[in-house]
Design a protein that fits this description.
This protein is α+β, with helices and mostly antiparallel strands. It has 5 helices and 7 strands. Bound molecules: zinc ion.
């Protein structure tokens, strides 16, 4: 049997134990997604235990058997997600990881990596967790093809907008916003902001939590409508 090695640096996005001592890991690096098996990582005494921490940043070496199946050979953790005893940060990490594992396909991995790495960087810097999460959700939604128009009316393109309908594709002008109650211009600015802001630089502005939570809920509802999938971490928002 021929065996070759693969070196990767990136993040654990999913960890699924499947037998007492084995687990499958989905990992996102600059090269995209890869999935591999690992033995023993659930045990706190294992050298591979760091792989059971979702969103840990790691350096790993995988071996590839002739059938193309990957298994963990060796590696080390670089950074574990830092919760800082802050519930909002915990929710941000959990929801971002579930978003990636539930919605982002293997083919979109190369584009998802810079998004995740700037999200992690923003939280490391200490930027407002809910604003960072709202932006990550907006950008990931765009990446997987369900993004909304935040430049002008989704129907006619007019830049004077009053409404927002995820179902209709984004912002709406007075003429085309027939049903929804108007969310107010400050909220529309917040939605545009999370779509446009560059997470790799210090955020110029933290949104009021009531706005970022509403944006997060709206995006999750939008994704649920289109995909039929509801994230488990949605319920965590209630605790904030
Ligand atoms: Zn219009």
């Amino acid at each position: 049997m021929t065996e070759s090695s693969l070196k990767r640096r990136g993040y654990v996005v999913r960890y699924v134990p499947y037998r007492d001592s084995a687990a499958m890991v989905r990992f996102l690096s600059e090269e995209g997604f890869c999935s591999f098996s690992v033995r023993g990582a659930s045990k706190p005494t294992s050298k591979a235990h760091f792989l059971s921490f979702v969103l840990s940043e790691d350096e790993i070496v995988l071996s590839s058997a002739s059938g193309g199946r990957l298994s963990y050979k060796e590696g080390r953790p670089l950074l574990l997600p830092d919760l800082r005893d802050d519930l909002a940060r915990g929710v941000a990490f959990s929801m971002a990881a579930e978003m990636l594992s539930a919605f982002v396909r293997d083919a979109e991995g190369k584009e998802a990596y810079p998004l995740l790495s700037s999200f992690m960087e923003a939280l490391r810097r200490g930027d407002d967790a809910l604003t960072v999460l709202a932006s990550f959700l907006a950008k990931t939604t765009e990446l997987i093809g369900y993004g909304i128009n935040v430049d002008g009316c989704a129907v006619c393109g007019r830049t004077e907008v009053e409404g927002l309908s995820f179902k209709d594709g984004g912002f709406l002008c007075r003429e085309h916003d027939l049903f929804a109650p108007h969310p107010g211009s400050a909220f529309l600015r917040a939605v545009r902001y999370v779509n446009k802001v560059d997470l790799s630089k210090k955020l110029p502005l933290a949104l009021p939590p009531v706005d970022s939570k509403k944006i997060i809920r709206d995006y999750l509802g939008h994704l649920e409508t289109f995909t039929g999938t509801k994230l488990k971490t949605t319920s965590l928002l209630m605790a904030l």
